């Protein structure tokens, strides 16, 4: 592979389910006062400064093997996994880097936290992109920076969403790592060996956002916060569930059932959120995963009709879209589990 030509991969088409790039109100973020929880924020920053994974992302001789031996379909699925993962990590790097740069003078404490997290995300993205070169491909991250549309999120939404994305990232990485530790025959590529320490970065990042959220009591108390917590929990869970249903072949290639994997990760992330959010979702309600399964099936049917412009198929698309949206709305209004007493007691 050393003599092979590495070509720039055309970025995947953007959809509602692809990793997105975000921006926010930097002045509002700079004005966040974290003094009410300063000790916890400082403690997490000290964890960041120790940089436990400074020497972790080093490729060894196992990476030099030729991966041509992988079946063509498995190669395609794995390349897509690398691309989506790299794009998501790079999106985090860009957001944290911009936050650090814009907050440096007004809020140096938060600026340092974002700078150190951007360091971690850059390592993750670079490691994933280097892995793509083993398949003679590479993502032009500079092109992505300029070409991708940026979605504006208010600071409070950034806090909710990034807390959950980092925590669910932890549970995804550690679950895959533990599975492949037991079933090494399914470890089709050496990058999975790095997931145990890697996911600890995600966990620490989530803890940082949790500490900032706890310094803003209005984001974790009252009826509005309950609505937003439910919204972001469902959004993150449903996005993962629909995405992974489309890529069940990848999970099958590493010996996992995508549906069972997602349900385990959702349960664990929901439990983690119980330590912070005033409400969590009732994922054990009989309708919860039944509804997510219906959403996943509906989304797969929509994908089959994506390129069709016939009148009949357009009508079918509308019907499927209505089913998808209405099912998600019904999921949102399932009675949640109240956790305020637990949160007050712990924190």
From TrEMBL:
It is an enzyme of class 1 (oxidoreductase). It catalyses: Mg-protoporphyrin IX 13-monomethyl ester + 3 NADPH + 3 O2 + 2 H(+) = 3,8-divinyl protochlorophyllide a + 3 NADP(+) + 5 H2O. GO terms for biological process: chlorophyll biosynthetic process; photosynthesis. Pfam families: Rubrerythrin. CDD domains: ACSF. Pathway: Porphyrin-containing compound metabolism; chlorophyll biosynthesis. Its EC number is 1.14.13.81. The keyword Iron applies. Its cofactor is Fe cation. Residues 80-212 form the Rubrerythrin diiron-binding domain. NCBIfam families: AcsF, PRK13654.1. Belongs to the AcsF family. Catalyzes the formation of the isocyclic ring in chlorophyll biosynthesis. Mediates the cyclase reaction, which results in the formation of divinylprotochlorophyllide (Pchlide) characteristic of all chlorophylls from magnesium-protoporphyrin IX 13-monomethyl ester (MgPMME). This is Probable magnesium-protoporphyrin IX monomethyl ester [oxidative] cyclase. It comes from Characiopsis acuta. The gene is ycf59.
